Amino acid sequence: MQDNAFRPAIARVWRGRVPRDRADEYEAYNFEAGIRPLIEKALGVQTFREDRAGESEFVTISYWPSIAAMAAFTGADPTDVHHLPRDAEFLIELPRSVQILSLRQSHGRTG
Question: Between 80 and 60, whose confidence is greater?
């Protein structure tokens, strides 16, 4: 039986778009400044990238055992976006919020 402290119940989804010609640079920066610290706190983290003609969209999904655990990392309101210091330099527009989803079912291998 799996301990609930180590079982994802909440997913926090962040999205951001950058000009296509800066996507590689942003991906490296985002990993070092944003994803690496997140890996140490969340149960798991997935990053996605979709390259389009003029822009690239990044999606980060982090998994948490509870809203309280997520809030301990993100601050009082886990829906608030915590912009990285250089996000304004890279992002086409600064996201105003993140999406919080309850994980209902998980099937197959997603790791």
Answer: 60
